[in-house]
Amino acid sequence: MTYEATVEFKFDATFTPSYGWDADDYIPEEHYLITAPAADLNAKQYFKLFEKFMLCVGMSPCSIRSGAMSLVFNDYTGEEEQRKVCKEYELTMDEDLDNKFKEWVNRDEEVKRLQEEIETARKFADSANGVA
């Protein structure tokens, strides 16, 4: 048995300028039809397809990204699901920033300590000046 499916996004618009409008800045009619085979599309491919459609109808890339992220980071999505996405994309949630900052301070202190040890060892090796 063969399975075939398509998905279509269609946008039709007409613009009738009223008195005083500069009609040169507008297209009187716009028709967009985006069709894709839907049988094997995954969720990311559907989002990519919808992104193309939203760009066609005038949405800004920034608004599109914001809308997509609002699907994950809203009050109706559980924190566990949000944390899965954060882990997948190496994001830090606001409530975790304090712990992250403490990790950075500890790491910086450890790096400084190791640099001091290396410098001390270097000075010691230089002070021997080949006498050994």
Mean pLDDT: 88
Flag low-confidence runs: none
Biggest pleated sheet: 2 strands, antiparallel
Helix and strand run: EEHHHH
The number of strands is: 2
Structural class: alpha+beta
Estimated radius of gyration = 29 Å
> How far is the N terminus from the C terminus?
84 Å
Number of helices: 4
Roughly how much helix do the residues carry, as a percent range? 40-55%
Shape: elongated
Oligomer: single chain
Sequence of strands across the biggest β-sheet: 1-2
Percent strand: 5-15%
Structural features, described:
- With 132 residues, the protein is an alpha+beta fold.
- It has a domain at 93-132.
- It contains 4 helices and 2 strands.
- The protein has helices at 43-56, 61-72, 79-88, 97-128, and strands spanning 6-14, 29-37.
- The protein has a two-stranded antiparallel ribbon with strand order 1-2.
- The protein starts with 5 loop residues before the first strand and ends with a helix.
Any chance you could write out the topology, listing elements then pairs?
Layout (H helix, E strand, L loop, with lengths): L5 E9 L14 E9 L5 H14 L4 H12 L6 H10 L8 H32 L4
Antiparallel strand pairs: 1-2
In short:
Helix content is 52%, strand content 14%.
Question: What are the salient characteristics of this protein?
Answer:
2 strands, 132 residues, 14% strand
